[in-house]
What we know:
Layout: H1 3-7, H2 12-19, H3 28-33, H4 35-39, H5 54-73, H6 77-98, H7 102-127, H8 129-134, H9 136-188, H10 194-263, H11 273-302, H12 309-330, E1 332-336, E2 341-343, E3 347-354, E4 368-375, H13 376-383, E5 394-397, E6 400-402, E7 404-406, E8 411-424, E9 440-450, E10 455-463, E11 472-480, E12 486-491, E13 498-500
Parallel strand pairs: 2-13
Antiparallel strand pairs: 1-3, 3-8, 4-6, 4-9, 5-8, 7-8, 9-10, 10-11, 11-12
Helix pairs in contact: 2-7, 5-6, 5-7, 9-10, 9-11, 10-11, 10-12, 11-12
Amino acid sequence: MAVWIQAQQLQGDALHQMQSLYGQHFPIEVRHYLSQWIEGQLWDAIDLENPQEELKAKRLLDSLIQELQKKAEHQVGEDGFLLKIKLGHYASQLKSTYDRCPLELVRCIKHILYTEQRLVREATNSSSPVGSLMDSMSQKYHQINQAFEELRVLTQDTENDLRKLQHNQEYFIIQYQESLRIQAQLSSLATLPPADRQLREPSLLSKRATVEAWLTREANTLQKYRLGLAEKHQKTLALLRKQQTVILDDELIQWKRRQQLAGNGGPPEGGLDILQSWCEKLAETIWQNRQQIRRAEHLRQQLPIPGPIEELLTELNSTITDIISTLVTSTFIIEKQPPQVLKTQTKFAATVRLLVGGKLNVHMNPPQVKATIISEQQAKALLKNENTRNDSSGEILNNNCVMEYHQTTGTLSAHFRNMSLKRIRRSDRRGAESVTEEKFTILFESQFSVGGNELVFQVKVSLRGCVPSKWYLSGTLLFSQHHYSFTVHVSLLNLICFLSL
């Protein structure tokens, strides 16, 4: 059965996800009226990272526009007249959008088809009790989605509590100002004659006692609200960290392992779309909670009340910054690996991707990525955080690249299309040691900010790791507004890269 026919039968969140794939960049009407033609094309045969494939992509774009125009010409009747105009408009719109960048059309349609197939597959598995029990992957996905729903509910709950706390605190401040006004009136009674003072003083004293008693009770209530909110945030952050561990330490590591096997002749590692969607959900939830914690801190600063809340908020700030640092640095990954054997003066390519770049608006100030070739000893020094930034084991041409944001797929990546190993520096070899016994790796480095320079990260990840997979290279939070300092690790692939001269 055609994918589009099955996609139209999706329901609930799956249907919403499918509909969100479309927009001005690719109207859903085009998908509907050209569904058979679209699914019959060999989109996967085009390598998006090879500029020489642009001619193939241009032919597909021209064919798509011709099919739309033919579909428009065959429309008759009153309703057909309106559809004819609409389809003709879409043909012009797609030509205007992709004529200069036809590979982006291929990227867009590949993303749409892959996501539709995944949504249909997940819906089919969930509708079959037997398939659901037997498909452990589907079960895990269901658990991950359930955890995200729980996080959404918890985050909305703390948002409501925070608004209530702010409202109560604002009313408290108004009443506190009223108590100051009453106190000022009492002080001014000293200038009045005794008779007038005796007449007005009892009423003011009674008002002051009433307001002060209310302020005392309300201060205790506010403190309870603050502590309750902090405890809820602790629960949310614990679940966030657990969910992040599942996605980064299990799912993402498995993808890297599949990529490792694919580089050695195994099956393809599969797409990153679902992993990116999970990482983006994590980023969104983490950022929402971070903003809530900062607002709670602002409320505490506005109205300091003695108690343990200051220490709790400091701990929450540290935890949430740690969590977001882990997410950002761990999702800076190598999407496309170069050949395992590199030769000098030979062109090769690689792609680096930041899975949360679009969600955290890193693309608003696109970071630059630098590739450097380093030896096994230099990699070990990096593991120990020793300063080897000025050292390299060779020279790579075209080793700097600015990350590009693809709006149609929401991906932020750097495509190194024309790198070339100009020369390699080897250590002194002894006796019968052969050239293949010396191992190297390509290190990608970048630095970018999140939240308007609020958090600045330096990230590193290695291609074709020359060291055992239990070792790691670091991604580091350089500084933040709260001056936290720690290191988060990014795993290496355990693939050996031999450099042939």
